Amino acid sequence: MAHFEIKGLSFCYPNSEKKALDDINITIKKGEYITICGRSGSGKTTLLRHLKKPITPSGKRVGEILFNKCPIEEMDVRTQASAIGYVMQNPDNQIVTDKVWHELAFGLESLGCDTNTIRLKVAEMASYFGIQDWFHKNVNELSGGQKQLLNLASIMAMQPQVLICDEPTSQLDPIAASDFLQTIKKINLELGTTVIMTEHRLEEVFPASDRVVVMEDGKIIADGEPKAVGEALKNKNNKMFAALPTPMQIYYGVGSSLECPLTVREGRNWIDEQLSGKEIKKDRLSEQDLPDLYADTPAIFAKELWFRYSKEAKDVLKGTSISVPKGSFYAIVGGNGTGKSTFLKAICGICKTYSGKIKIDGKNINKYKKEELFRGHLALLPQDPQSLFVKKTVREELLEMAEGADKEETVAKMAEKCELTALLDSHPYDISGGEQQRTALAKVLLTKPDILLMDEPTKGMDNFFKQGFANILKELGDITILMVSHDIEFCAKYADIVSLFFDGGIITTNTSRRFFAGNSFYTTSANRMSRHMFANAVTEEDVIKLCRENL
Amino acid sequence: MDRETAFEKINPIICFIYIIGAMALCMFTMHPVACCAVLVMSLLLYVNVCGRGVLNRLPLLLVVYSILSLSNPLFNTKGETILFTYFGGREFTLEALCYGMMLSAMFVSVLMLFGVYHRLMTSDKLMYIFGGLAPGVSLVLSMVLRLVPHYGNQIKKINTARYIKQEGKYSKVANVMSAMTTWSLESGILMADSMKCRGYGCGTRGRFSIYSIKGKDIAVLILAVFLFASVLICRVKGGLDAAFIPRIKISRWDNIYFVMAIWNMILYLAIPIVINVTEAVKWHILRLKD
């Protein structure tokens, strides 16, 4: 039984000749879990917004969309509000009221339900989603993951038949994201709600989906079961291939006649089978020793930093020390709320520590004047790129930071470096998340820092943007980078030295390869998949290389 | 004090009526005994509801009390008993002093009751009470309460992000304001989308609150109304009459209405204390039984 039928849908935004959607035809069955993936700007969000009448973009449209056999334009407001639920990307902006319980009731209040009905539904939802413990809280006290779960629950309270999620986990840390996706899967399995989702974190969504649709330039280029879609992308040699889950990429990278694995568990079995009966001649890649971090003058040196936000609060940093060698790419990983971001802010003096010593390039931070420190020495790229934007166009944003006689030229060069040339006249809020992050980076780089501090730079970026971002960082040359991140895969691929941050301090430090090979939970999928065979394979390329050599 | 006291769990409407009633009681009479009783009971109530921390504010209240009491005779010189004269013959009378003391006792009691009010009537409770009269307004209020910390947070973020840029104080403020305008418009559009997605504006809004009226609430209401009414009747019957000028003349212990009024006033102000203390005792006993 079809839930949504989209027939020959094409769409152009006003003042644009380019088709944002080009002849889309899909039928979505009741109870299906369907993932739509594609690069940024491929039309995923535009397509999803067409499924919900109040937020359908205006522009030229051809084709029709049927919901339960009824054209979507003819549905009345009340039915569409309750039958189709829509969760958006940013957890913060969707919340309307100040209390958790009020937020849960918001949709039902809009529908004009009576108090007893609302009471029951709210109670049901709070119990189902485990919200009881923070039911009475103010919404601004919640974590990002809790906020997004609240958004989901307040939509589920209206008992929708279809749940549409537009990159719901892009702003969440990996643990919260995984919780959220599991809840979605649970809703799909237990309530039979149809789920239509766009995601860039395919690692988890791919195996959970019944069906995957891949979009490119407003067209559907693949549609089918996850494994079939993987094969189709491989055969077309499509760039989307790089976004597939690690086990699939390794499988196709090695080239195998066995069945394609989707999850780490299947991946482990596949490696076993693939290499069974073969002698493992080589089980490790060459690795470097951790250099002496305190040799020479480190770019950043911090000794036993103590910090708390107010006199009564608990300590956030508890005697944290670090030494970042010049020219290295240093990453700090660790869970949410362990104080990583605070640590970065403490290093550049935004958070004043009450005890401890910080040296930048061998000189005590207190001996620098503020102008001196932030001109040519230190720069901090904040977590939310939007917080850096104050002007109307990207060009003006960059000009604001540029110095010297030839501002225009400096900006043009920087734009070229960060692949922003085509976007210079756009408004910084109109470009995609990855492009915003690159603009923010360009802005920060214009202060010509020797040392770049970055707070979660890859948050909300898809795999291609990450690769591009890493390339920009590589081309910066001998700049020292200290990055705080949740993105294990990114750190494993690009960082030189990695530290684990926990409970206000650095627990362990090692070279990226040794660090991840030594951990058993906090490590990459590629490592988890291959650790029983190979000693220190951390990235997909490592596993593929070792597999090939042993075949 | 983060823990909810027993009286805080009373339905907000009844709580609101109770506090308004208590303030009215305070202003009923200038009778010295009644004023003393009210002052003591308000203090007990204040400490009981808001926690021992408020004892720190006692010196301040004492100062307010003294200034108000002593200043009344300076403005009002009527009265028979002259204590002393100053400024070449201006009289400072006992009657005016007593009147001032009663007046400031009343004032300080009401001040403390406002403290109680502030602690008990949080924004969501007020919204529950007045939301029924104007659902639209109550939604707007709720949104404002949500947006104020939301905006504050963003301003903090922008300030941190701009740490790397050297600029004057004024241009910094201008830049932050400009960034906030863009950001709030953008996030406003998204919030509007989210509201539309959840059916905002598709008909009459229903109303939901987490509060309900229970048996205990009704009991408190009946008791409060009964005590209040009886004090009112006693007042009308002259049980609380007090005149200070030109001569102090107050009703006496042999007046049955006077005794009843005082007792009922004390009882009225003791309702929350009794509820809170009873609960504490019950818990203690329950724990002993284990």
Short description:
The complex is a heterodimer of chains A (551) and B (290). By secondary structure, chain A is α/β, with parallel strands linked by helices.
Instruction: Note the beta-strand portion of chain B.
Output: under 5%
Strand order of the largest sheet of chain B: 1-2
Q: Give the count of structural domains of chain B.
A: 2
Q: Oligomer, anyone? A: heterodimer
Give me the CATH fold name of the largest domain in chain A. Rossmann fold
| SS summary, helix count of chain A | 20
Structural class computed from helices and strand pairing of chain A: alpha/beta
Termini gap of chain B: 27 Å
CATH architecture of the largest domain in chain A: 3-Layer(aba) Sandwich
Query: Which shape of chain B, going by the Cα principal axes?
Result: extended
Mean pLDDT of chain B: 89
Rg of chain A (C-alpha, Å)? 25 Å
Instruction: Enumerate how many helices of chain B there are, as a single number.
Output: 9
- Greatest contact between two chains: A-B, 66 and 48 residues
Largest sheet data of chain A: 6 strands, mixed
- Provide mean pLDDT of chain A, rounded: 90
Euclidean distance between termini CA atoms of chain A: 47 Å
